Amino acid sequence: MNLSDEDFEELYRDDIEDETLEIEDDIQLQSISFVNKLPISKLILSQCCGGITLQRTQSNITNLTIYQCDLSSINGIKQMMQLRELDLSVNNVSDISELSYLTALQKLDLDANRIADISALSKLVKLQVCLGIRQGTFSIFLIQLIWRY
């Protein structure tokens, strides 16, 4: 069965609590563009292995978690300009260049991904917390981030 954005919108409308929508173990979820029509500021996706894409997602979400969802591309995330907190931990993301557009971003978790180039993060002047820093290049960035303040 292939559900449309409208189907997901209707399916999850009643699950919204305090402007937060949490979706867990949904293997049919392939896009989060359905959130464009929902009155939420926080979206949490956990173990949703449907090959999620972020294309066509323009919403007022300020807090986004996509945890352990086999996410490999964040193309389209640059349209989510309101994001202040982003958790992409335990995925397969390797290219984070679009994060440079998220100028409101304050907290970021990239733990357990395949990221090699973090130069995009240098443009995030409001970034205060960057978690999941394990590799040498990330350590250099953390030092630069500390010296900025």
Provide a quick synopsis of the model.
By secondary structure, the chain is of the alpha/beta class. It is 14% helix and 16% strand. It has 2 helices and 6 strands; from the N terminus they run H-E-E-E-E-E-E-H.
Report the end-to-end length measured between terminal Cα atoms.
51 Å
**What's the assembly state of these chains?**
single chain
Biggest sheet: strands, sense, closure? 6 strands, parallel
CATH architecture: Alpha-Beta Horseshoe
- Helix and strand string, N-terminal first? HEEEEEEH
Uncertain spans: none
**Biggest sheet, spatial arrangement of strands:** 1-2-3-4-5-6
What's the mean pLDDT score? 81
Topology, number of strands: 6
CATH homology group = Ribonuclease Inhibitor
InterPro entries: Leu-rich_rpt, Leu-rich_rpt_4, LRR_dom_sf, SDS22/Internalin_LRR
Keywords: Leucine-rich repeat, Repeat
Pfam family, one: LRR_4
